[in-house]
Amino acid sequence: MPLPIPRNAEEITPDWLSAALGRTVGGCTAQRIGRNESFTGGSLVRLKLDSSGANSPATVIAKLSARRPAFRQALAEANRREVGFYKTCTGGRDLPVPQSYYADFDGNTGESIVLLEDFPQARSVDFVQGCSLRDAQNVISGLAQIHAAFGQAGLPDRGWLPEFDFAQCWADYPAQLARILPHQALPDRFRRLGDYLAARPELFAHFSGQGPQTCIHRDVQADNVLFTPQGAVFLDWQFTGRGNGVSDLGYFLISSLTPELRRGVERDLIRHYHQELMGHGVEGFSLTACQKSYVFSVLGKLFLTVVATVLFDNSSEQKRAWRRADLERLLAFCADHDVTPELVMAQG
């Protein structure tokens, strides 16, 4: 009989953990991680276990889906993808992702839970402050390892999916942005780009489908990475799918480096990514093709920036500061690389 999916830390009992982990858990204590719910309404809980068994971890992380039914339903496909990633894509691979001890998803309610390896000594980076060059290099090395590992087989069962209605989100975006960030202006060229993409939403998948295909994360930003002595570890695989790995590289550099740092190092970091791919055995993907794909990675970033502004929880001041930094970095990239409807049209 399937186990019920806990909706909060109180429902993660020793009996439930014993059944989920396949070993006796005599007791556990729970500690909430983070001050607020995530943008998608979910939460993380560190569980300290009193358990028996060889190599039994002292702690695990429980990732719970949103408590609010509307959020759970809106993110049902994302929750399904993340559970599927941990159950089918990570087995037998040496990847910089947490080990999954248990994962389950309910298609009727959208509820999910994942029990993950804990990294209690890992360091995180504040998104608003942005990543340093050293941290960015570690992230890029980890991304290249993941992209190379999935380059031949074991890809997710679905490609880049428009799980949200971009055209509707774009129509609602100006008003929602005005509520969240009332003093933030949108340049005319950015508005024209959004209008163009809203009328042609198939272009998001089109550009991601160009070039070598691999397993992509689709939301690589500082909040979804832990930094350990061994390197970067990637969390939150809710939007994973098939696509061009360079889209993850661009998404990360756009979102998680300040524009000033990105402008000075992006050429070197693109080259670093390409060299790491080649070092992992990837062939037939030139540096020139990599650089071209990098510019159009901005489309995936724009997609989730707009969707997250309209549909996700941006109620706290902390989340609004995050949203402000994210948009300012996106606008800076579009200006730096002259991303316009005409550029997209010429390449699409």
Task: Explain what the structure shows.
It contains 13 helices and 9 strands. The chain is an alpha+beta fold. It has 2 domains: 9-117, Phosphorylase Kinase, domain 1; 133-347, Aminoglycoside phosphotransferase (APH), C-terminal lobe (Aminoglycoside 3'-phosphotransferase, Chain: A, domain 2, Alpha-Beta Complex), CATH 3.90.1200. It has a 5-stranded antiparallel beta sheet with strand order 1-2-3-5-4, with helices on both faces. A two-stranded antiparallel sheet has the order 6-9. The protein is globular. The chain starts with 13 loop residues before the first helix and ends with a helix. The mean pLDDT is 91.
Q: CATH architecture of the largest domain, please?
A: Alpha-Beta Complex
> Major sheet: size, sense and barrel closure?
5 strands, antiparallel
Beta-strand fraction estimate: 5-15%
The radius of gyration computed from the alpha-carbon positions, rounded to a whole number of angstroms, is 20 Å
Question: Termini, distance in Å?
Answer: 49 Å
